[in-house]
Amino acid sequence: MTAKIRAERRTDALSKARIVEAAIEILDKNGEDALTFRALAAHLETGSGAIYWHVADKDYLLAAATDHIVARVMADAARGSSPRDVIRAMANGLFDAIDGHPWVGGQLSRNPWQYAVLRLMEGIGSQVQALGVPERAQFNVVTALLSFMLGLAGQYAAGARLFPRDADRAEVRKAHLGAVAAKWMELDPAEHPFVRQVAKVLPEHDDREQFLAGIDLILAGMESIQKLGAP
Amino acid sequence: MTAKIRAERRTDALSKARIVEAAIEILDKNGEDALTFRALAAHLETGSGAIYWHVADKDYLLAAATDHIVARVMADAARGSSPRDVIRAMANGLFDAIDGHPWVGGQLSRNPWQYAVLRLMEGIGSQVQALGVPERAQFNVVTALLSFMLGLAGQYAAGARLFPRDADRAEVRKAHLGAVAAKWMELDPAEHPFVRQVAKVLPEHDDREQFLAGIDLILAGMESIQKLGAP
DNA sequence: TGGATGGTTGGAACATTGTTCCATCCATGT
DNA sequence: ACATGGATGGAACAATGTTCCAACCATCCA
Fold this sequence. Notes:
Two copies of one chain form a homodimer.
Chain A: H1 2-12, H2 16-30, H3 37-43, H4 48-54, H5 58-77, H6 83-100, H7 102-110, H8 115-130, H9 135-162, H10 169-185, H11 193-201, H12 207-229
Helix pairs in contact in A: 2-5, 5-6, 5-7, 5-8, 6-7, 6-8, 6-9, 6-12, 7-9, 8-9, 9-12, 10-11
Chain A binds a DNA duplex (30 and 30 nucleotides) through residues 6, 9, 13-14, 36-38, 41, 46-50, 52-54, 57-58.
InterPro entries (chains A, B): Homeodomain-like_sf, HTH-type_TetR-like_transc_reg, HTH_TetR, Repressor_TetR_C, Tet_transcr_reg_TetR-rel_C_sf
Keywords (chains A, B): DNA-binding, Transcription, Transcription regulation
Domain HTH tetR-type (chains A, B): 13-73
């Protein structure tokens, strides 16, 4: 065993990058709650103390993991033609990322001061600038887009937290939404008419479409305000 | 001591309502992290086990506390003239609630399936219906408004988590935003032009104005889409 | 009226977590 | 060869949510 450890030392040297990578593996495979320093230490065949030499604390680790994912999304989305397309590509990419790594949604919405969020803000901001929005309105428009994204990210993450890692997520998800809808249908029709109406559509609705519809809505509002202010 | 307890029994009988009330007191006075079952038990002069007789677990307790606050907001906001005004009143009320009880923001954004969120959805939904939005578009519009609200709620809550309960919040907040802005200004101008531009406005900006601006933006988008589809 | 009953209570005990501490290791430079 | 200090592994600590259980006491029945 000691020999094995010795042999591994060279190739297995601990590092922030390797730790973040392992954390992402655990998060992806077993969900948000599964990431503990003990599980991480076991996965890396070391002790928890050693991890703290490279990583300040759990918050930092989660922020680093999240940034790792978001950075790729933003880089890919940057290759678009019009500013509108880039924004929609970023939204699409973010959706894919959260779909593939549900914990990213929770982490993004929980901690808005982390670097990953700053990345999103810069990416969205530069495109909003390119759209010719007057400077004093840019902040509000970007915040609206960003908050909407983070808000929905949190919601999807909460949904995913309920059934962590299943083979046929689509099926499980639909069953779950069906159960929620059924519960909503039991509410008093006089007190909750709208929710009951939504319940009918809930199990069939497409998350991605909903996400992009929200983005388009905000962009449309932005344009209508621009037209209003221009002439 | 035993006599005292006996005497108190009658007036002090434990109940879900009294527990929720005490939880809100602790959350308001000492912040999100301060609510533990031990602190709660001490505050109620009982043991943690007794609390579990009335309350399933901490999630349930937090959801109940949140709903207690949100219910009042929605009831107050319902007294408005036009649907637009009601929506803005709800947003304003929600902002006040989060401003006064920052933990509400965190709780709302963390758990979208709790009853408080359903309340918000019903409240917003009925007004959107009243605005004459076509039924198949209602779901997306309401989700957009709701997600934006929850997203920004989470952000404000995260901000408040950094300085839990201070006498002059306004001062502390400004100092904190100033520190964030200063950090942002240190970023590479080539890589983060937009963030650096925002940093200049950050410490002075008005949260409430920003919140309502987002609502108006989405409402404007909704109207422009309506006009587009109608004629 | 007195004893049984079962809804409540209080607090000890447990499992799990993030984090700290420290004895030990080993590649490097002298 | 040997001292040094960056890295490591794992034990120990403090805090938390939750469970468990002995004791309590108002109520109901005999």
